[in-house]
Amino acid sequence: MLSILENDISRKLTILDNLYKSNRHISIAEMIELLNCTRKTLSKDIASINAAYDVVEYHREKGFFFNKTKGVNFYFFYCTYLRESLHVEVLRLILIEELSIVKISRRLFMSESKTRRLIDVWNQYFDERNFDFLIKTSADCTMILGNETQIRWFNHTMLFELEYIDIYEFKLQESREYGAYKSVLKNDFFDSNTSEHEKIKSFFYVKAALYRTNKRHVDNNEEVYLSFGTKMKNNTLIQFEKIMAIETGVYFTDDVRNQILPKYYFPSLCEEIDSGTSEIMKIINDVFDYILTTEESENRYRAEKKVTLKMNHLHKYGPEVTYFLLDFVALNYKTQQEYYFYFYEELNKIVAKHNFLFESEKQKQLFYKELVLLLNFELSLPKYVLKRPRVTIYLFASHSTIQSTIKIIKSYFGDRIELHVADCINDKLHESDLIISNYFFLGNLEAKKVHFQETIDLKWLYLLDSKLKNIYKKLNS
Hints:
Blueprint: H1 7-22, H2 28-35, H3 39-52, E1 56-59, E2 63-66, H4 74-84, H5 86-96, H6 101-108, H7 112-128, E3 133-137, E4 142-146, H8 148-162, H9 164-168, H10 176-188, H11 196-214, E5 225-226, H12 236-248, H13 254-257, E6 261-262, H14 279-291, H15 300-317, H16 328-339, H17 341-353, H18 361-379, H19 382-385, E7 390-394, H20 399-413, E8 418-421, H21 427-431, E9 434-437, H22 444-448, E10 449-451, H23 458-475
Parallel strand pairs: 7-8, 7-9, 9-10
Antiparallel strand pairs: 1-2, 3-4, 5-6
């Protein structure tokens, strides 16, 4: 929700977000209507954006355009403006230092009444997102109180999003504290398959948890955490503790180690959940029934087990809070929903069939998004959810010519087509969308034919490709 930021920052991020996503020019009139501002304000905002990164170009007739060749994406700006925002800085100071309103106001050179207003705005934001926590104030301090697990997830997303630039520029990865953290993980969890992206996010959770621990906030929801730094045989953990003690003021004890590292980021290290009785198992089983044919299901058991375990893990340990201000999960979900429209429809039916309930719409979005990513990884999901043109090769040619033709077409088109070979005029031929042949047919078969030439060249492949694209559009319109 960008409206929680200062007006000028909110406008600039809205400009950039729309330009970055649209991949087209946006006219001045459109932009003014979008922002509900004057032309002078728009010009000022564009100038401010380009002063930092010269990426917004202007064409007198077409309007504004985001030049992506400059190597700067939307997240650079997002991080830059988060760091500039006094509204965000107030929240960061409350998280890390729990200063009183008087001290926050002095630190940021603003009135106490404005500080109180900003706290009210944040509390309203928390309420709108149905969080089970609020900012509480007293004479001595200002702190976030409520559901501690939710607080830690929210704070870690804030810290993570504030460091986008350092992550993209590899400054974080080269930092002393992150290097020490990775060393601890390597010694403790050497068999972890966790990606670098997940390790970085888990690092910010550890920082958020340590900040909370330093202010004597305890998370009793211990089942969602792994024990951290318990198998050390050298001074790696000691070094990390010293670094983090300087940063957060916390020295590690067994209690601290047991509530700073979330299981969510380390699925391979968690105990396997019995998939035999799982409701998720029923969903995954039906999903595989829907997308796999008999011939393609030889690796079904392996893929099905991996997907079930990972989705079980997500359902059990998935975060209650997935973003700070911009809901990237919802954006990804929306994109996937458009791309995998028919699959999502079928998935909704399967979920309804088993009366599977999600705790929130956010959890459902995360579940669907991760399921699609997993199925892409395990099965190349687009191959199954989109109807592919059925192409049949029916040639009067030698065996070697037919085989080489098959190899060339497979290497060029891959999984985009469903390829068959016929040795006579049969049902397969009639059911085909396209026939590659050097025979002469009568009626409908001739209309489907692409004439085969003895020497296949790029020109012929391009011709075939153009015909397939038209068929593909008809099948998936």
